[in-house]
UniProtKB/TrEMBL annotation, chains A, B:
Pfam families recorded: LacI (PF00356), Peripla_BP_3 (PF13377)
UniProt-recorded name of the protein: Ribose operon repressor
Gene3D superfamilies, alphabetized: 3.40.50.2300, lambda repressor-like DNA-binding domains
Domain of life: Bacteria
Gene: rbsR2
GO molecular function: DNA-binding transcription factor activity; transcription cis-regulatory region binding
Length: 347, 347
DNA sequence: CGCGGCCCGGAGAGCGCTCCCGCAACAACG
DNA sequence: CGTTGTTGCGGGAGCGCTCTCCGGGCCGCG
């Protein structure tokens, strides 16, 4: 393949000259070749190969008004993105789906509130055809930006301003069945004879946390009083919440933690307080982060969700809207993926 | 701010008309405003604000031949990217630096060998001004592609075909002082009176692993015979390697694992075999992945490296070359960032 | 009061591509 | 044999921007 390190790259014009046809014909061949005789098309393709022609995306975008790229926007405090391969997995799912459709992934990491102006400018600039946005807190300015600009956007995780799953959505999002998963966890604990089941909840401004809390309340046996402490999805937060729970409710015999990270923190505190897991206190996590759940001691019973699949679904939804007659109409649907319990040793 | 959900966005022309000046003047103002009187510039800026004008990046790229974007290429088997927040951190460092220079981050995940053709096409297409590439194995086709195209590229981690650090580089890369860090770890174990120090190495085709192995050999006390088993940087691999070591060298009293993940695997096996850590066997990891090292039982003594800083440096190096008279000349330099020992309880 | 220099702003030529339209050439039909 | 339809290809306009000229005003200085 020829190279063009510094000298200008060949243009359509050059290919046309070489193949003895017009620019338009080369363009047709490059874009699928409909309406061109086999003979001519082959000649063009040969010229393309000889010159090492690659279309200039900027020129193409200028006229087609499509960029072939979507933004992935991740707004998450450092603490979580660091300790948690959640986004890596989700992004990988997205990437796989986008690759299959020759679409590029532009990563926008939100470091702080001041970044939103930059991101708004970027999205308004028409750099991308659509966006995938993650983990929005209640007051996140992003949705407003996206709708103002009219950018097709799919959300990962139920956005905070959205009614609980099942209700009318207003936006398109993909989420795990957090509530159902929490029910699974609590029911499992109850089935194992536990009657004092506590909950370590996630941050109250995140729907994944509140949905899991709702699931806990749903499945709690009538005789068992709700016992809840709030963590922040981190190991430290889980430890603090566990200590708090033990102080307030020393009689507890089971804990459902809203994340594996918090479960690990709880595990540490339980060990310090000489409560055996699962004999004295049974423990169930959430997320099934393998590197965390499997390596814990004892390995964590937890609720599994298909993270990569969720990423894939998000991308698929967006690409569908982008393809469909280029309208970018995104039917407001919520797609809830199932969760399941993975039994290990902690409960 | 006005919106333009569907109707066409305002162009330079429109702004010019509104401000009563020419296109060229508006362009000057938008790009810094040098050579324009204050009065006129203000008028233009007002028109820009009123119309909600945002420059069309495609049109700009078409003439300037700069995209304002760089590719981040991550080629790593799933197993590692999943379990390991390493890339999240590195990418975050890169993102911070790029944001500060109004440059976009296009993420290219390599899923398999067949993806390289797609990536080559993408890079050749001139979508990006430069690239940052990670964790290249010896036979990785990427460097060849990058040089053929003439794309300024900075590598993360010493590429396999490159001579050991210190020698002439040939390419630009940023890496942690793996060898020095390994020396630190082994020396620490020796200082604590250990005389039978084994090593769980990473995959032999990765320079981070071989450099750490070299450091282990450097610092091993003369009286201590080398005892090495190879893992693959995963928990499971670490467990297998530990089992192997215990079988071959039951007399060992210390282990230096080339990653925290593998150290956790080793920890599990040691516990199963009723060897106390650190009393019977002292253990040191590498990477200082906080979520892993801190949550292990006992918390891991490990070698810390500034991962986010490395990402930052990579971006800074690339941006420097991109700025410098737009030549994109990248002086082949290797930048080695220091490591340090973090003492916790495992050694 | 005149002239050279300087600074500000405008006109216009593209960047490389797509796509609409129009013109051939040929088949089919009355 | 003229007319219409069909298919294959070329011409040309234009996407929205930057940047190189170039001209016109205004200053200072002689």
């Amino acid at each position: 393949m020829p190279e063009h390190p510094t000298g200008h790259r060949p243009t359509l014009e050059a290919v046309a000259a070489r193949a003895g046809v017009s620019r338009a014909t080369v363009s047709r061949v490059v874009n699928g070749g409909a309406g061109v005789r086999q003979l001519v098309a082959d000649k063009v393709r040969e010229a393309v190969a000889e010159l090492g022609y690659v279309p200039n995306p900027a020129a193409r975008t200028l006229v087609t008004r499509r960029t072939g790229a979507v933004a992935v926007i991740i707004a998450e405090p450092e603490v979580r993105i660091f300790s948690d391969p959640f986004f890596s997995q989700q992004v990988r799912g997205i990437s796989k789906e986008l690759n299959a459709h020759d679409t590029q992934l532009v990563l926008l990491l939100v470091e702080g509130p001041e970044d939103y102006e930059r991101i708004a400018r970027y999205l308004a600039g028409g750099h991308v055809d659509g966006a995938l946005a993650f983990s929005l807190h209640a007051d996140d300015p992003l949705p407003a930006i996206a709708t103002r600009i009219g950018l097709p956007t799919v959300y990962g995780g139920r956005p905070a301003w959205t009614p609980a799953p099942g209700g009318p959505a207003g936006v398109t999002y993909v989420d795990a069945d957090n509530r159902g998963g929490a029910r699974l966890a609590v029911r499992h604990l109850a089935d194992r004879g536990r009657t004092r089941i506590a909950h370590i909840a996630g941050p109250g401004d995140m729907t994944s946390a509140t949905d899991r809390l709702d699931g806990y309340r749903d499945a709690l046996p009538p005789a068992c009083p709700p016992m809840v402490a709030e963590g922040d999805y981190t190991v430290e937060g889980g430890a603090r919440a566990m200590a708090d729970l033990l102080e307030r409710h020393p009689e507890l015999d089971a804990v459902f933690a809203a994340s594996d990270q918090m479960a690990v923190g709880a595990l540490r505190v339980l060990r310090e307080r000489a409560r055996r897991v699962p004999q004295d206190v049974a423990l169930v996590g959430f997320d099934d982060m393998r590197s965390v759940a499997e390596c814990a001691d004892p390995p964590l019973t937890t609720v599994h969700q298909d993270i990569e699949g969720m990423g894939r679904m998000m991308a698929r939804l967006l690409l569908g809207a982008l393809d469909r007659d280029r309208g970018g109409i995104l039917a407001p649907t919520s797609l809830i993926t199932p969760t399941r319990l993975v039994r290990r040793d902690s409960a």
